[in-house]
Every structure is written in C-alpha cells, then in structure tokens.
Design goal:
Layout: H1 2-33, H2 56-63, H3 70-101, H4 107-119, H5 122-136, H6 143-146, H7 155-166, H8 171-178, H9 183-194, H10 196-211, H11 215-220, H12 229-232, H13 245-255, H14 257-265, H15 267-275
C-alpha cells in the first residue's frame, strides 16, 4: 500500500511539473529571447538558451521612441493602474457594504442587474462607452481609464467583497450601534479591518487588469507620450520596416515584473481573500 501511494504521488508530481513547464515555457522563451541578438531570435527559435548573451536589448528598449524613454511609459501605467485600483476598491467596498448590510426597496433587482453586468462582454459596451466619453470630451485623456472606476463599475469586486461582509456576524454591527457608532463608523472602524483580505485581493486583480489593459488605452489615448506600457510595446513592431523584437521582449520582460512581485508578496492575502469569507473560528 505504501509503495502504491509513493508511486501515485510521484506520478502526480511529475504530471503537474510537466504541465507547469508547458504553461510557463512561452514566458521563459520570451525572457531568454530578450538576451538574444535580434537577427537570431526566430532563426534559433527552437533553442531556448542564447548562443551569445547580450544586454543591449534592455538599454535599447529603455531609450524608447522619439525622445520618450520607456520610463515615461512605466510612469503612465503606474498612474493609471494605481488611480483606477484605488477607485475600484473604495467604491466597490462601499457598494458591497450597502448590499450586505442594508435592506431597501429594489435591492434584489439591483443585485441581479449587477450580476448581469458581469456577464456582458466588454465588446458590447465598447461603442456606447466611446460615444459617451467623446461627448464628455474625455477622449484623448486618462479620464475614461480612471474616473469610471470610482463608481463601482466592476461587479466582480462588489460581489466578492459583499460575500465577505455577509460572513461577518451582524452582532458586531449591533454592538457598535449600542456604543453610539454611526454607519460610517461601523464601516471604517469595523468592516474595513475585517475585510482586509478581500480588499487586498481586489487590489491585486484590479491592478493587474489595469496594468495589462491594451484595448482601452488604444481607444482613448492618442498621444505617444501618454501611452502605458501595454500600448507602448507595440511600437517596437513596424510592418513597414524592420521590427526590434529583442528590445520588445526585453521591455515585455520588465513589464511583467510588477505583476510577479505583487503576486509573490501578497499571495497570502490573495488566497485568503478568495478561499475564506468573514471571520475565522
């Protein structure tokens, strides 16, 4: 019996290891290609290890385009991602608190509408949103990429935080009311500390989604100096002339570092926020 268990565990870990390697192979290939000469990236595509390691792709890519360094694109991405994430988490927490703790007419209908909004493809809303933002004069600025997120437009985070709050005993609210605490005080002093895992989870997902968002920036940002990283990477590919794939892979490698670091440092909160709800016994 012990030998069978050992064999099963060994087979299981081998299968998981192979699947893991297959999943991260494109990422490894991209990182390795960033150290290859531009002329050998695709001619030696079957070879993972570069014949000659070079780091000039990173310096070339960091210089950017038209006197705009890639540092500017990183600053733009950080600004958009941070502002949108703050707006998303703050507004989603407030709306989730209302759904989880208050009783009002039409609550079930509004909650159902919120769930339905999660099922709508983004492409369905693309044209109406663009026309709306154009009438507001927001096209060509960061407004469409940041302001709407202060109004809880992402139902997933509202649903996530609302479920987390629903798992917290209502006796805490009642005790706070007896002590003279207002609804705002209950939210800031009691709820926010208790739903920290859910808030961190929302921060991680929101930041990564905004950091990787290519389509929204393509629609609303026109000036190259305002490009985020996701949009600036395409500048390395020029169909009319030669493309600098080495520099593109180098900058793409740097662009994934924030997401990787955030996941590594906040993995504990990410798992806790998804797998638990409310207080632990």
């Amino acid at each position: 019996m012990k030998e069978k268990r050992v064999v099963k565990k060994a087979v299981y870990h081998i299968i998981v290891f192979v699947i893991g390697i297959i999943m991260i192979y494109p990422l490894i290939w991209m990182v390795m290609s960033s150290f290859k000469e531009n002329s050998t990236i695709f001619s030696t595509a079957g070879s993972l290890i570069p014949e000659k390691f070079i780091v000039s792709n990173y310096s070339t890519g960091w210089k950017g385009f038209g006197k705009i360094s890639f540092a500017t694109f990183f600053k733009n991405s950080i600004f958009i991602s941070v502002v949108a994430t703050l707006g998303t988490v703050a507004s989603s927490a407030l709306v989730a608190y209302g759904f989880a703790r208050f009783k009002f007419r039409g609550k079930s209908i509004l909650f159902a509408v919120m769930l339905l909004s999660m099922m709508l493809p983004a492409q369905v809303l693309m044209i109406p949103q663009y026309l709306w933002y154009q009438k507001l004069g927001w096209v060509g600025s960061y407004m469409p990429l940041t302001v709407p997120y202060f109004f809880a437009i992402q139902g997933f985070f509202v649903y996530l935080i609302s479920n987390f709050i629903s798992g917290i005993p209502t006796e805490l609210d009642e005790a706070a009311k007896i002590d003279g605490c207002s609804y705002a005080g209950i939210f800031t002093r009691i709820m926010l500390p208790l739903i920290k895992p859910a808030l961190v989870t929302a921060c991680i997902f929101s930041f990564m989604w905004r950091w990787d968002d290519f389509l929204s920036a393509l629609l609303y940002v026109s000036k190259s100096s305002m490009y985020p990283v996701s949009l600036a990477l395409k500048l390395f590919c020029d169909p009319g002339s030669s493309s600098d794939y080495g520099a593109m892979f180098a900058m793409a490698t740097l662009s994934i570092l924030p997401s990787i670091l955030i996941f590594l440092f906040f993995q504990k909160y990410l798992v806790e926020g998804i797998s638990t709800s409310g207080l632990k016994g």
